[in-house]
Design a protein that fits this description.
204 residues, alpha+beta, Jelly Rolls, 2 domains, five-stranded antiparallel beta sheet, 4 helices, 28% strand, binds 2-acetamido-2-deoxy-beta-D-glucopyranose, apoplast
């Protein structure tokens, strides 16, 4: 009996370790790009965010990423950043990051945030400058700057070098999923589906 319990505990603890882990561990200090055998401090430096210094407020919601694609030294390090810039009354539509949880730090303005868990429960908050909010890995979430006069600026850290982004509107309505399938799925008609698709494709 005790042995069984021990084995069950062992399996459970290895499962919970598995689900807590970020990217797989690497077997070297860092991963060099194949074409670069010797690097210096520049390899570990990312300057792509300098464009934000003294930059004007963007016209629409803007995200600047520093993930593995933009910053190759992050490969194997299980971390990345994005800077989120919200002009007044702008939204970052519902989306998920399949490979990483997100820790958002609001640097300026106010921001309405929310996520939906796997039991369809919605969690929301109105953040003030200086607040942080965590979006659990893989769950659908959004951010909205409801202030019609002021910008909101946030930095998000991710527990993956390549968290990935799946946009709900785009993946459902801005690909070639059959209109009939979507009409049935959303319990509406093909006309309504085409209208939504046209909006996302910029055809209205
Ligand atoms: C190789 O590394 C150097 C310095 O770290 C960097 O300036 C250069 O762009 C890298 N080259 C490639 C092909 O990644
Ligand atoms: C819809 O997809 C097109 C083509 O990939 C893209 O140019 C456009 O930005 C997408 N629309 C939105 C709202 O992201």
């Amino acid at each position: 009996m005790k042995t069984k319990l021990f084995i069950v505990t062992l399996i459970l603890s290895s499962l919970s370790y598995g689900s807590m882990a970020g990217d797989p561990d690497i077997l070297s200090d860092f991963i060099l790009p194949p074409e670069n055998t010797t690097v210096d401090g520049n390899f570990f430096t990312y300057t792509g965010m300098r464009v934000l210094v003294q930059a004007p407020v963007p016209k629409t919601f803007q995200v600047l990423k520093a993930s593995m694609a933009e910053f190759p030294a992050l490969n194997g390090q299980s971390v990345s950043y994005a800077v989120l810039d919200f002009p007044p009354s702008s939204v970052n539509p519902p989306h998920t990051h399949p490979r990483g949880s997100e820790l958002l730090f609001l640097l300026g303005g106010s921001l309405d945030v929310g996520f939906v868990d796997t039991s369809n429960k919605l969690f929301t908050q109105r953040l003030q400058t200086g607040d942080m909010f965590v979006f659990p890995k893989g769950l659908v979430h959004f951010q909205y700057n409801g202030d019609s006069k002021n910008e909101a600026l946030a930095v998000s850290a991710f527990g993956s070098a390549n968290p990935g982004t799946v946009s709900v509107p785009n993946s459902v309505f801005n690909t070639s999923v059959d209109d009939g399938v979507l009409a049935l799925s959303f319990k509406t008609d093909v006309y309504t589906i085409r209208k939504i698709k046209a909006g996302l494709a910029g055809k209205v």
